[in-house]
Write a structure and sequence with these properties.
Length: about 210
């Protein structure tokens, strides 16, 4: 049986850091963000629908999605975000389901579904356990401002567009505290793997059991 671990966290929580740790241990990771990019790639049906729904200005002259302009629209207007989700969500779920089926057919013991909207899109129902990456609100805001070069107001707006950290933790099988250094986060991930019987994944990378 393949154990599906849902990995999620608020924007700028450091979820990608944890995802990278799993990859280093050669655990298959299904990246919902990458899937989301794939379904709106140049020439894709998803991108054509976005253009038809939101206007030609949402596509650059090079034929790519204008992420900055679309993001400014949907984060400021919840109804517009709902319209976008109605286009992309079914396409993303279809690809994620296909990749999970492939991992199960290959009899992978563990696969990680890395999805920032794991709860909102009900991907948690596809998972056997949920790992939530958590940081304090102050740390989240600071990291988002630095990472995306946003004003405090714009950063707070993007944070508010997601479900709260408390709501996300309600679904958690395990919570990873990512307020500190990467090494501290790594130790928490290793401990979870060992407790759940995947110590061989850590030992082959030179970790102590």
């Amino acid at each position: 049986m393949t154990y599906v671990l849902g990995l999620t966290g608020g924007i700028a929580s450091g979820k990608s850091t944890v995802s990278a740790l799993f990859r280093q241990l050669e655990v298959p990771v299904i990246d919902a963000d990458q899937v989301a990019r794939d379904v709106v790639a140049p020439g894709s049906p998803g991108l054509r629908r976005i253009k038809a729904t939101f206007g030609a200005e949402m596509v650059t002259t090079a034929g790519r999605l204008n992420r900055s302009r679309l993001g400014s629209l949907v984060f400021a207007h919840p109804r517009e975000r709902q319209r976008l989700d109605a286009i992309t969500a079914p396409l993303i779920r279809q690809q994620i389901t296909a990749q999970l089926s492939k991992a199960q057919t290959s009899q992978e013991p563990l696969v990680v579904l890395d999805a920032p909207l794991l709860i909102e899109q009900h991907y948690d129902k596809l998972c056997d356990g949920i790992m939530v990456v958590s940081v304090t609100p102050a740390t989240q805001l600071k990291r988002l401002i630095l990472r995306d070069h946003l004003s405090p107001q714009a950063a707070q707006q993007r944070i508010a567009a997601q479900i709260s950290a408390n709501e996300r933790r309600r679904f958690a099988t395990v919570v990873i505290d990512n307020n500190g250094e990467v090494e501290a986060t790594r130790r928490q991930v290793i401990k979870w793997l060992q407790i759940n019987g995947w110590g061989d994944l850590t030992s082959k990378r030179g970790e102590s059991r």
